[in-house]
Specification:
- A hairpin with a 7-residue loop joins strand 13 and strand 14.
- It is built from 13 helices and 15 strands.
- By secondary structure, it is of the alpha/beta class.
- The longest helix has 24 residues.
Length: about 375
């Protein structure tokens, strides 16, 4: 397909700089015409680094452009619902960052508007389209479905999540995993049990209508040398594991190779050697690169605290600040694939595999149920107050 869909981007901050701007400008089927942000300096960076033809500080100007077919919303979570509704009412297809809404009630506001508009609304649960998880899903479907799953998602949320307040990691991170597990299992969750050892250190167990059980270990207290995510899946007979999107291993599945490895994410402003290393060495390379980045970053912090100026400090500043990719964004988590699939759906009207309003409403319901369970210490049935 040579045709391209014309897009606008609302929000040019951190997540757009690390993911959406590279994805939208690399996508085979997207023409990014306009970027909107309240901050003029971010717009200037977008034009300088990505050659964006048009920028504006007024999102209404972007929405009024009849050439723009799809809008990506990458603003603060508390603005997602209102901007998504406004974009739908302007006749645009919408890809909005997660969470769609911070409550079930907020998500409910979007559905009637989306249905009336006849436009697609996709939510940025990009892990669905990660190549490793697409292959994992094929294995699950080919071998009797998932029966038992363990998912670990752990990072330095104690640093980057401070602004959200304690106990909010479930809303801002685990919502991804709730959506992904529903997608992989192909069934709805019937009950949730959540316990914590401290704020943002949770263990969550889910029971599905299919009979599958799943556990999620979510911790915001690990360091960047540790891979952020892993999943173990037991099927009817046999199993598979994925380490941080770069390596899939199968066990007892004769129609699948024992090991698959996946190239990492490419960002035009950072070194891309990790892509080739992941493709060749998988999880081993991932472990080594994360360890190197962590050690170099700690050394730089020590030199900065001492006030010492040296060639070593300048070299480390170059590596850590500008050259090395962010450890959380080296892996291919499906960002580009999600945008390209969204654009394909706009162009040819095919079925959309991305999470929609109803999926995000269910993810919000699971978030609220997990928080209730954590507060009460009891197993809580989904949808039961």
């Amino acid at each position: 397909m040579n045709q391209r869909a014309t897009f606008g981007l609302i929000g040019a901050g951190g997540i757009s700089q690390s993911q959406h701007l590279p994805s939208l400008t690399q996508a085979r089927n997207v023409y990014l015409k306009t970027v909107c942000d309240l901050k003029a300096d971010l717009l200037a960076l977008a034009q300088r680094d990505y050659g964006i033809p048009q920028v504006t500080q007024n999102h209404k100007e972007l929405l009024a452009d009849p050439e723009i077919q799809g809008v990506v919303i990458a603003t603060r979570a508390d603005s997602h619902v209102s901007l998504a509704i406004e974009a739908l009412q302007a006749g645009k297809h919408v890809y909005v960052e997660k969470p769609l809404g911070e409550t079930v009630e907020e998500c409910h506001r979007v559905l009637p508007v989306q249905k009336k508009s006849g436009r697609i609304l996709a939510v940025g649960h990009n892990r669905r389209l990660a190549p490793a998880y697409q292959l994992l899903r094929k294995a699950i479907l080919a071998h009797g479905g998932a029966k038992n799953i363990h998912y670990r998602i752990s990072d330095n949320y104690y640093v980057w999540g401070k602004s959200y307040g304690p106990g909010q990691r479930i809303l801002h991170e685990v919502c991804h995993i709730f959506d992904l597990l529903r997608y992989l299992v192909g069934s709805e969750v019937t009950s949730v049990h959540c316990v914590d050892s401290r704020p943002d250190d949770d263990l969550i167990t889910l029971k599905f209508e299919s009979g599958c059980v799943a556990s999620i270990m979510s911790s915001g207290y690990v360091t960047q040398d540790m891979p952020k995510e892993s999943i173990d899946v037991v099927m009817e007979l046999g199993a598979a594991t994925v380490v941080d999107f770069v390596e899939l291993r199968t066990f007892g599945l004769d129609d699948f190779e024992p090991v698959y490895r996946f190239a990492g994410r490419w960002h035009p402003q950072h070194d891309m050697m990790h892509r080739y290393l992941f493709e060749k060495e998988g999880a081993t390379a991932l472990m080594d690169l994360r360890r190197i980045f962590y050690e170099k970053k700690r050394r730089l912090e020590a030199l900065e605290q001492s006030g010492q100026q040296s060639p070593e400090r300048r070299e480390l500043e170059q590596y850590v600040r500008t050259q090395a990719p962010n450890p959380s964004y080296m892996e291919n988590k499906g960002w580009l694939e999600a945008i390209e699939h969204f654009a394909d759906c706009i162009l040819d009207g095919g079925p959309c595999q991305l999470a929609g309003v109803e999926d995000s409403t269910k993810a919000a319901m699971l978030v609220q149920t997990a928080i209730r369970s954590r507060s009460s210490g009891q197993v809580v049935e989904v949808g039961i107050g």
